[in-house]
Design goal:
The complex is a heterodimer of chains A (326) and B (209). With 326 residues, chain A is an alpha/beta fold. Chain A has 14 helices and seven strands. Chain A has a seven-stranded parallel β-sheet, with helices on both faces. In chain A, strand 4, helix 10 and strand 5 form a beta-alpha-beta unit. Helices cover 57% and strands 11% of the residues of chain B. In chain B, strands 2-1-3-4-5 form a five-stranded parallel β-sheet, with helices on both faces. Classes of the chains: A alpha/beta (326), B alpha/beta (209). At the A-B interface, helix 6 and helix 12 of A face helix 4 and helix 5 of B.
């Protein structure tokens, strides 16, 4: 029996077998190249949104939601990643959802008739720090581990509070996108990960689940040394399964496929620089080994990023359409 | 005193202890170069190997490097006085269009841990800047880092810029970062690709030798 996108995504996220394998991406950056204009209209960007009248703003948000629904319908996504609309400082610093976002989510739900899952970022754990922050973080771990834990708890509480607001605004899926790993392995040792990240990630995931939200934990890099800890946090799905870091969906499926839905593993670098044969082979491999028994969502190992040839993305969608049916 | 103890304490990231021990070694009249090599660099070298084997992780490397820097600060004037020079000179940067610096910083630490002098050009570095700085600073190696598939092509431009400047036979070009591999290194005509920071340092030492 044919499922709606929502039913299909939920079946996969709960490790059941849907009518066919669903697809989605954490972000889709090729809307302009493939559909003629970007998903985020320039008029709603900071600096311009303030110049719009209330009526103009509402009109633009309506059009943005309509276009978003159109693009993702064309792509056949089962989960739509929402972008933050309105004053992002209001969200980032005060933890209050901008009314523009609430409006956008409402319109989008109307356009999709509630038949697609809506997603937004919701992580609040330490990710790999950049630049000098990396030094400071490492020194704090050595000099003040209790302080690092205290801050981790505050970050988790903050994320849980914000995720409740996303839930009220109609967000069904939390995308937990703090990166923990390089290609060579985790930033933190497994012991440090257990001390400074795992308990807090667990709290964020459990709080989201208690509210009925689905959780997709994303991290780039080689996750294998912390795979058990990620799974212990009980997310609905693990995302990325980065093949550039040597993560193999076949092996991950064997190890934890009975505990968590798997997303990703289609080789993004091959999509950028490999041959068409490489791209097709990667997509076919993922579908072959991710599909059995359900609990699998087809997607790239990162996102269809700006600069990726659109025809390469279309190529993997074609493979997916050919192999997706159960 | 036993310089091995400096190495051990450095590996544990005990910066204050390392500083105390290095001062003690200086006071005992042990030559600065010996303290550097048998104490500090030995410790960093072991940390580098353990990092390569996933036995220690980035924070432990950074904490060890902090301990090393405390010791090096005490030794620097003595090394200069004795006319001791670094075993090689490298300029390193993340290529133009790419602002990611984690990998680059790790390689820098590992290079310094091998006793090489490192000129850090930062991120978003143009091919021309790599070449200009290599010439001005008399570097034997240019190290290029990239995280993005959209910027890795700049590494080929660095090779071309070095050729155009007529320094290609004097400077080795190393590349690294998530999207690159040996095939890409061969394709653009760079001299070496390494998959991790510790291997990059080993490679740089051999290229300087």
């Amino acid at each position: 029996m044919k499922m709606t996108h929502k039913e299909r995504a939920i079946a996969a996220l709960t490790r059941q077998i849907p009518d066919h394998i669903p697809t989605f991406e954490l972000e889709f950056q090729l809307a302009e190249e493939m559909f003629g204009k970007p998903l985020f209209p320039p008029e709603l960007k900071p600096g311009r949104i303030e110049t719009l009248s209330a009526l103009e703003k509402e009109r633009k948000i309506y059009e943005m939601a309509e276009y978003t629904a159109y693009v993702y319908k064309e792509l056949d996504y089962s989960i739509i990643p929402l972008m933050m609309v309105g004053d992002s400082d209001y969200w980032d610093k005060q933890g209050k959802l901008p009314p523009e976002f609430v409006q956008y989510a409402r319109y989008l739900r109307e356009f999709t008739e509630g038949k697609v899952l809506l997603a937004h970022h919701g992580d609040g754990t330490y990710s790999i720090p950049d630049g000098n922050d990396m030094y400071e973080f490492a020194y704090r771990i050595a000099d003040d581990p209790e302080g690092v834990c205290e801050q981790a708890q505050k970050m988790a509480d903050w994320a849980i509070d914000r995720n409740k607001k996303l839930h009220e605004a109609g967000v069904d899926v939390l995308l937990l996108c703090c990166d923990y790993c390089y290609n060579t392995g985790p930033f933190l040792s497994p012991d440090m990960f257990r001390q400074f990240i795992q308990p807090y990630l667990y709290q964020i995931i459990q709080a989201g689940k208690a509210d009925g939200q689905y959780t997709i934990k994303h991290t780039d890099g080689n996750i294998m040394p912390i795979l058990d800890q990620l799974v212990e946090c009980e997310p609905h799905a693990l995302h990325s399964l980065d093949p550039m870091a040597g993560v193999d969906i076949r092996e991950v499926k064997r190890l934890v496929g009975d505990k968590v839905c798997l997303c990703g593993n289609v080789h993004c670098a091959a999509m950028q620089t490999g041959t068409e044969e490489d791209v097709i082979a990667s997509a076919e491999y993922c579908l072959t080994y991710g599909k059995p028994g359900g609990g699998y969502i087809f997607c790239t190992s990162n996102v269809p990023f700006k600069g990726m040839p659109p025809e390469r993305y279309q190529l993997i969608l074609d493979v997916w359409k050919r192999m997706r049916d159960y | 005193m036993d310089l091995h103890e400096i190495s051990v304490q450095l590996q544990a990231g005990k910066a204050r202890v390392v500083k105390t021990l290095v001062q003690q070694a200086i006071d005992e009249g042990i030559p600065a170069q010996e303290i550097l090599e048998k104490g500090l660099l030995d410790g960093m070298s072991i940390i580098g190997e353990k990092f390569k084997n996933n036995e220690v992780f980035v924070p432990e490397v950074l904490i060890a490097a902090r301990a090393m820097n405390q010791g090096v600060a005490l030794l620097k004037p003595l090394l200069a006085e004795a006319g001791v020079k670094a075993s090689g000179k490298v300029c390193i940067g993340t290529v133009q269009g790419d602002l990611h610096d984690i990998g680059k910083n790790l390689v820098k630490l590992m290079l310094e841990g091998k006793g090489l002098e490192v000129i850090d050009l930062g991120t978003d570095v143009s091919p021309e800047t790599f070449v200009k700085m290599a010439v001005e600073q008399n570097c034997q190696i240019i190290c290029c880092s990239a995280l993005l598939t959209t910027t890795m092509g700049v590494m080929a431009d660095v090779v071309k810029a070095a050729e155009a400047a007529g320094i290609r036979d004097k400077v080795k070009i190393m590349i690294g970062g998530a999207p690159v591999n040996q095939a890409f290194c061969d394709q653009i005509g760079a001299d070496a690709y390494t998959s991790d920071a510790a291997s990059a340092a080993d490679m740089a030492v051999s290229l300087c030798g």
